[in-house]
Write a structure and sequence with these properties.
Strands 11-10-16-7-8-15-12-13 form an eight-stranded antiparallel beta sheet, covered by helices on one side. The chain is an alpha+beta fold. The protein has 14 helices and 31 strands. Helices cover about 25% and strands about 30% of the residues. About 40% of the residues are buried. The chain has five domains: about 5-175, 3-Layer(aba) Sandwich (Rossmann fold), CATH 3.40.50; about 185-270, Translation factors (Elongation Factor Tu (Ef-tu), domain 3), CATH 2.40.30.10; about 290-360, Elongation Factor G (Translational Gtpase), domain 3 (Alpha-Beta Plaits), CATH 3.30.70; about 390-480, Alpha-Beta Plaits (2-Layer Sandwich); about 485-595, Elongation factor 4, C-terminal domain (Alpha-Beta Plaits). A hairpin with a 2-residue loop joins strand 27 and strand 28 (about 490-495). The two termini are about 55 Å apart.
């Protein structure tokens, strides 16, 4: 066990995790220079385009006689579950902080996750080559945060390669080796998985006890499924066959299973030859924060959508979904996500990886409904809301939110949070602001989740000139005055645009939605009415004027009655079209998107 070191990199978004992983791969000669590309471990097109890590990615490196198993993790709050699963598979974590930006909200959130797992923390300052890097100030923030000594903090530049060998040596020196449990009953933890059309489900595993060899018969202790190991090995970063994985090692196992539900993240694998009595603890169940209906544009694509969602669930264990039927949209799924970015990435992956065009309903949060007959239920969709007469009261989720910002933006942040019904708790300062530098403060609030999920993060970046960062977690549920708002187009309710809103905010939100629809819906041969309604009461409305075809253009003269006849004929044609139901409006996807991003 002595030469094995298992570690991951945790940081806020855009602090250089993937670039640091690239330098590790170069220094350890894991990948030949001719095959090196920027952000090599970000293997999805969408990760490369957006410059963010979405999926955790393991890789094995050899350096100075040691085997280093690295797991590169995401930094965005919406992919926290990926981070927590990575942390459970390792013994050490590099806490990476941008020397120009300092400690950010997600840095702290991920640090607490690592401390909960009792991991060894190795603080590293990145981007020291930047002209605005302030090593002294950021070091002070890290010391304040984790209570280490200044000499324990390493500095590097993942871009230029400066300090990288020292970071690798610190990983070897400070990270404890896995315990030797080779002779115990076999147990391996599944921390990730994906589907291969030819080889079935491939699970990423951390060997805790014993060993697994190619050809072994294995059992999945949670689902009771059995399989034969078709192949086993490690990531380098492509899958590389070894024939055996021993305790303390990280790698993959090819199961050959075609039923996706038989392999679940957090399950324990054991062998029939050395069967374990107790499974490993697994992972804490993740609670989705945002719910939206996902429906295929074409009803025939439902089966393809179901298969695609199953495969994405295997690769994205934070995704929740259940079948749903809508009178307007047909068969689809009610999906749960950890945030709006998670929802956006899911839609994009369906489009790119599976070629599916979908309609997503307006996102909502999960509300607890207490009925007058003492029945309790949780609703995730506006269509599930009982009638007003049946409801005693409604509770909505509230979050603990931490916002880190330079001191002179505190007033702007407080104003924004007050608009969103936030409750101030307290402020703590991360740095003293010496040497003419601005102090940085962490503001603690309680806020309704419904205030956060749409455009709060964008607005926060706007009012702080891009300097603020935030993280949040569930605090509990509180009573709320929530009502269902319907959007009507040409007097027809559009189910996909229905949403739950606070009663005192209904007019403002309704007005905003009808205005955005007025700008995005294409003109028709008739007037389109757009209305927002609470029950039977219209609270906001707009009209899109008719697209007028000039039927008199072909006239070149003659009596005015000829012109009137043509206009009367056009008017009758429009009435007939509406009477036959041909006046219905087809809502394009960009109109749904405009409402989603209202």
């Amino acid at each position: 066990m002595d030469p094995i070191r298992n570690f991951c990199i945790i940081a806020h978004i855009d602090h250089g995790k993937s670039t640091l992983a690239d330098r590790f791969l170069e220094v350890t000669n894991t990948v030949e220079k001719r095959n090196m590309t920027s952000q090599l471990l970000d293997q999805m097109d969408i990760e490369q385009e957006r410059g963010i890590t979405i999926k955790l990615q393991p890789v094995r490196m050899k350096y100075a006689g040691y085997i280093l198993n690295l797991i590169d993790t995401p930094g965005h709050v919406d992919f926290t579950y990926e981070v927590s699963r990575s942390l459970a598979a390792v013994e050490g974590a590099i806490l990476l902080v941008d020397a120009s930006q300092g400690v950010q909200a997600q840095t702290i959130a991920n640090l607490y996750l690592a401390l909960d797992q009792n991991l060894t923390i190795i603080p590293v300052l990145n981007k020291i080559d930047l002209p605005n890097a302030d090593v002294a100030k950021v070091s002070e923030e890290i010391i304040h945060l984790i209570g280490c000594k200044k000499k324990d903090i390493l500095t590097c530049s993942a871009k230029t390669g400066e300090g990288i060998p020292e970071v690798l040596q610190a990983v070897i020196d400070r990270t404890p080796a896995p315990k030797d449990t080779t002779h115990q009953a076999t147990r391996a933890m599944i921390f990730d998985s994906f589907y291969d059309d030819y080889r079935g489900v491939i699970a990423s595993i951390r060997m805790q006890d014993g060993q697994i060899k190619k050809g072994d018969s294995v059992t999945f202790m949670g689902t009771k499924a059995t399989a034969e190991v078709l192949d086993i090995g490690h990531y380098a970063p492509a899958i590389t066959s070894d024939g055996i994985l021993e305790n303390g090692q990280i790698g993959y196992i090819v199961t050959g299973l075609k039923e996706l539900g038989l392999v679940s993240v957090g399950d324990t694998i054991t062998t029939k030859a050395h069967t374990a009595k107790e499974p490993l603890p697994g992972y804490k169940k993740v609670n989705p924060m945002v719910f939206a209906g996902i429906f295929p544009e074409e009803g025939d694509d439902y089966n393809a959508l179901r298969d695609a969602t199953d495969k994405l669930k295997l690769n994205d264990s934070a995704l929740f979904y259940e079948p749903e039927h809508s009178q307007a949209l047909g068969f689809g799924f009610r999906c749960g996500f950890l945030g709006m970015l998670h929802l956006e990435i899911f839609q994009e992956r369906l489009r790119r990886e599976f070629g599916l065009n979908i309609i997503a309903t307006v996102p909502s949060v999960a509300y607890h409904i207490y009925k007058t007959n003492k029945e309790e239920l949780t609703i995730k969709s506006p269509q599930d809301l009982p009638t007003v007469q049946e409801i005693d009261y409604i509770e909505e989720p509230w979050m603990i939110i931490d916002i880190i910002t330079p001191e002179h933006y505190i007033g702007n942040v407080m104003g924004l949070v007050a608009e969103r019904k936030g409750e101030y708790q307290n402020t703590e300062y991360l740095s003293s602001g010496t040497g003419g530098q601005a102090k940085r403060a962490m503001l603690h609030y309680h806020m309704p989740l419904a205030s956060i999920i749409t455009d709060f993060y964008d607005k926060l970046k706007t009012v702080t000139s891009g300097y603020a960062s935030m993280s949040y977690e569930l605090h509990g549920y509180r009573k709320s005055n929530v009502v269902k708002m319907d959007i009507l187009i040409s007097d027809e309710p559009v189910e996909a645009l229905s949403l739950l809103v606070w009663e005192d905010e209904a007019f403002r939100i309704g007005k905003k939605i009808v205005n955005s629809l007025k700008d995005t819906l294409p003109k028709q041969q008739f007037v389109i009415k757009i209305q927002a309604a609470l029950g039977g009461k219209i609270i906001a409305g707009e009209r899109i004027s008719a697209l007028r075809k000039d039927v008199t253009a072909k006239l070149y003269g003659g009596d005015v009655t000829r012109k009137r006849k043509l206009l009367e004929k056009q008017k009758k044609g429009k009435k007939k079209m509406l009477a036959r139901g041909k006046g219905k409006v087809t809502i394009p996807p960009e109109a749904y998107l405009a409402v989603l991003k209202r």
